[in-house]
Design a protein that fits this description.
CATH class of the largest domain: Alpha Beta
CATH topology of the largest domain: Glycoprotein, Type 4 Pilin
Number of strands: 8
Largest sheet: 4 strands, antiparallel
Oligomer: single chain
Strand order of the largest sheet: 2-1-3-8
Strand content: 15-25%
Radius of gyration: 17 Å
Order of helices and strands: HEEHHEEEEHHEE
């Protein structure tokens, strides 16, 4: 269904800047506005800022508070226009990440927002995984785990640790990647607030 990881365009940081500085700023503003509107029980903004930001893309929004993770929610698949995915994942990261209590109004003002716009998933062999370039999805049976490309860099993991940690995220044994688990990779354009 997807091209194999031998695809010469995959594994190269393709289109590292699909989004202009103004588009990135617009998406970050939209994410913050979505969180602020949720605190006031208002709807998510419904208007596409531009045709480019209305393209169907998978996206994750990651929230940091005082340098620590405060929430991260996203869609791997391109289920909706990017601007809507960002607005919804920002709100979900702030209020629906089961690992954290909902963000308070006081915390919301201090959050740092990071957005990851994802490429399509493609099958990949373990030896082709490049730390810092690929995000991973590991699937076995009904279990599935995902880690974004920036995670192994933040934790200084090598390739095998990254593969094992993605398996653990799926609730699988750490060596499931060697025991028949399906591996898929994606790249991401990652940007955030200073």
């Amino acid at each position: 269904m997807f091209p194999h990881s031998d695809d010469p365009t995959f594994g190269v940081t393709a289109n590292p800047s699909d989004y202009s500085p103004s588009e990135r700023a617009e998406l970050l503003k939209l994410a913050r506005e979505s969180i602020e509107r949720a605190l006031r029980n208002e709807e998510i903004p419904a208007t596409a800022p531009s045709e480019h930001l209305a393209e169907m893309r998978g996206a994750f929004t990651t929230l940091h508070l005082n340098g620590k993770l405060r929430g991260c929610i996203g869609y791997v698949a391109a289920l909706q226009p990017l601007y809507q995915a960002v607005a919804e994942t920002a709100r979900a990261a702030a209020f629906d990440d089961p690992r954290f209590d909902p963000v308070s109004a006081e915390e919301a003002a201090l959050l740092k927002i990071e957005i990851s716009v994802l490429s399509q998933l493609k099958p990949i062999r373990p030896g082709d995984v490049v730390v810092g370039q690929h995000g991973l999805v590991v699937t076995m049976g009904h279990r599935r785990g995902l880690l974004l490309p920036q995670v192994p860099v933040e934790w200084a993991w090598d390739r095998e640790t990254f593969l094992s940690q993605t398996c653990l995220k799926a609730g699988l044994p750490p060596l499931a990647w060697q025991q028949g688990a399906e591996l898929q990779a994606f790249t991401a354009e990652v940007f955030g607030e200073e």
